[in-house]
Write a structure and sequence with these properties.
The structure is a single chain. It contains eight helices and twelve strands. By secondary structure, the chain is an alpha+beta fold. Strands 1, 2, 3, 4, 5, 6, 11 and 12 form an eight-stranded antiparallel sheet that branches. Strands 7-8-10-9 form a four-stranded antiparallel sheet. Helix 4 packs across helix 6. The longest helix has 10 residues. The chain starts with a helix and ends in a 6-residue tail after the last strand. Belongs to the D-glutamate cyclase family. It comes from Trichomonascus ciferrii. Pfam families: D-Glu_cyclase. Keywords: Lyase.
């Protein structure tokens, strides 16, 4: 927990500086207590309206919190996202998705690829409510083990918008059944970071259409102990999967799941 406390006290601008200088390249969970972390998606601006529509129609897995000025990764339309911010350099790892390629390329920056035709979107991240879980004495296992949260594609359909559709992606954290209500209360106020769980228990694995709980589609495996059940939240990687499934004709960019943008926006900005 000492490491977590040290992480929690680092200011967002300092996290971004360390990332930009490549002195920090790990998953960002636990950093900058009280501040919002965000998923990133960057695409040609001609898809902007379709993508915003997807987020509005599916606010639980796709909570849109900010977008960049087209062509400029250093400026966001929403005030207060970040001092000395460059969303093309300030995430530990990015992924570049190219048409016809099954696997993305992992890179350290995308600022050099960002043209006037591209616009970036910041999507709420469940890392933002994890400090509330820690305060309740319910730290998620991936924080304790230092890995990225496990994430799974599901069979739950999104409400489509233009070229974008597909299914939910969920993140998972194991908890004891007796702790579920406390977990729901702790995360439920974070409505722009997915809110409370969408389901829990072993029956949910089948209902969600998850093929193998021990083999996440994104992130890392975490142990589910004998007295625990899986608890599932909507996940911002849903937007990444939706763009992948749309097979758009141009390259698009995203964060590597588990490696987020730490912003200057505060928890109160996304709570009820």
């Amino acid at each position: 927990m000492t490491v977590q406390k040290d992480r929690a006290s680092v200011k967002p601008v300092d996290v971004r500086r360390m990332v930009r200088e490549r002195t920090f390249t790990e998953p960002t969970h636990g950093f900058s207590s009280g501040y919002i972390q965000a998923n990133l998606l960057v695409m040609p601006k001609k898809y902007r309206d379709d993508f915003v529509g997807l987020c509005r129609r599916n606010p639980v897995p796709c909570p849109l919190i900010a977008e960049s000025i087209p062509g400029d990764p250093t400026k966001c339309i929403r005030d207060g996202v970040g001092e000395d911010l460059n969303i093309g350099t300030d995430i530990p790892w990015y992924q570049v998705y190219r048409p016809g390629k099954k696997q993305p390329e992992t890179v350290t920056e995308i600022a050099s690829l960002w043209t006037e035709e591209y616009v970036g979107f910041l999507i709420g991240c469940s890392y933002s409510f994890e400090e509330a879980l820690v305060r309740e004495g319910l730290p998620p296992r991936h924080m304790e083990t230092g890995v990225a949260v496990p994430m799974y594609r599901t069979s739950i359909r999104l409400h489509p918008s233009g070229v974008f559709g597909g299914t939910y992606v969920v993140s998972m954290r194991p908890y004891k059944k007796k702790d579920i209500e406390a977990v729901r209360r702790a995360s439920g106020k974070y409505i722009s970071s997915h809110g409370e769980p969408i389901g829990w228990g072993w029956d949910e694995v089948g209902r969600l259409g998850i093929k193998d709980i021990n083999n996440p589609d994104f992130g890392d495996f975490v142990e589910i102990r004998e007295d625990e059940v899986p608890v599932f939240w909507g996940c911002g990687v849903t937007t990444q999967a939706a763009v992948m499934d749309a097979n758009i004709a141009e390259p698009f960019f995203a964060h590597k799941p588990g490696y987020m943008l730490v912003t200057d926006l505060e928890e109160k900005d996304i709570m009820i």
